Amino acid sequence: MSGLTVFFRVxxxxxxxxxxxxxxxxxxxxxxxxxxxxxxxxxxxxxNLIQLIKNRGIEVHAIVKNILPVDYEQTKNxxxxxxxxxxxxxxxxYIHDIEWETLIKRHVxxxxxxxxxxxxxxxxxLIDNNYKAETVTFYxxxxxxxxxxxxxxxxxxxxxxxxxxxxxxxxxxxxHVFFGGADYNNYTYFYSEKILEYKNFKVHAVxxxxxxxxxxxxxxxxxxxxxxEYSISPKNMAEIMEKCTIALGAPGTTTWExxxxxxxxxxLATNNNQIPILQEIQSDKLGIYLGxxxxxxxxxxxxxxxxxxxNVNLQNEIAKxxxxxxxxxxxxxxTDFIINTLRGSY
Length: 346
Prior knowledge:
Mean pLDDT: 91
Strand order of the largest sheet: 3-2-1-4-5-6-7
Order of helices and strands: EHEHEHEHEEHEHEHEHEHEHEHEHHH
Distance between the termini: 16 Å
Number of helices: 14
Helix content: 25-40%
Largest sheet: 7 strands, parallel
CATH class of the largest domain: Alpha Beta
Structural class: alpha/beta
Radius of gyration: 20 Å
């Protein structure tokens, strides 16, 4: 669609994590593929992904503070520097609230929020691609004037994972461990160590450049040799996952990547708001839920994990169900909806 610029207001840091930026980049790939101009607006936090975004050839405007009044002024100034027939702003943030949205909405043709935490918004389109978000009572009773794209139909999945959907259970048993790129609690180390010391499994752990505890992973590598591998911000995440038999880790964007590839996962909640979703995932045989993550893996978690390891039939069922649920077309559906909304079709 000519004359359209899509702006993303999104941040990354140790506490925020990198998932917000990564799913925005996934959507931006679809937009760019259709010849739509994309611009990112990000805060220069201590740990950020601004350079990573620039490395993909995307314009980035850095703002200095994410204090909301200052944030609004700086975001508005960026928007006003561009002359476009249509301006769309997509916010992926838990910090920006309805007051900020009300102010910024006057400066764009379409305001969109990607938010998997049900709350009040003043936007034109709300995207919550959490599992079964379409059944959440809050959305049925509120935001009645807002167009809502809800549930796994709108999962933002990188193309590399779609290409690996022929995954089958491997004969060599390898466990993929991932608790988010930043993992500021270092669950990656604690759970990898527990698995490796409890039974002679092989583990491949993944973290990002923003991970602060690389020395602990080096210690595991020194201690366990070929039984432990780790990757930092790998460009071939799908390839690594494809070689693994099962996964252990936290939910997030990677949940959908695991499902799309048919990689059965044992999940641990790193935040209380993840618990209801993980319970649903277990109930529908899309994964198993071990409980809340901590720096001490409980005996109950260990026993549940070992039962999962031994239950190949359940692993196969989870793999099959995940691939059926996630078709990888979320970015296309969202982009179509944005364009059709601007054209007045919706």
